[in-house]
Design goal:
By secondary structure, the protein is α+β, with helices and mostly antiparallel strands. Helix content is about 65%, strand content about 20%. It is elongated.
């Protein structure tokens, strides 16, 4: 959930806001004079966002993701059992 909070509202509620971020994975947009100036989120959210940006900046990774999505749409998938068999063969 994304919450909007002003700097003035944030000051006395900082402890609660951090608690909500930590336990409920809430996100906060901090505003000053009606304009967004900062974002508060959990470290897990932040690291996940950075990882996503890294993947999306890798053109080859994006191509592989698009190809995989297309293959899924076309029904070109295998069962988990088939995957296990294939990986067994690779380990031999």
């Amino acid at each position: 959930m994304i919450n909007n909070v002003t700097v003035k509202e944030l000051r006395p509620e900082l402890h609660n806001v951090i608690q909500n971020i930590d336990t409920k994975l809430e996100r906060y947009i901090i505003t000053k004079h009606g304009k967004p100036v900062a974002v508060m989120m959990s470290i897990d959210d932040y690291e996940s966002l950075l990882e996503t940006l890294e993947i999306l900046s890798d053109k080859e990774a994006v191509k592989r993701i698009k190809r995989a999505k297309r293959q899924i749409k076309e029904g070109k998938t295998i069962s988990i059992e088939e995957l296990k068999e294939k990986t067994k063969k690779l380990n031999v």
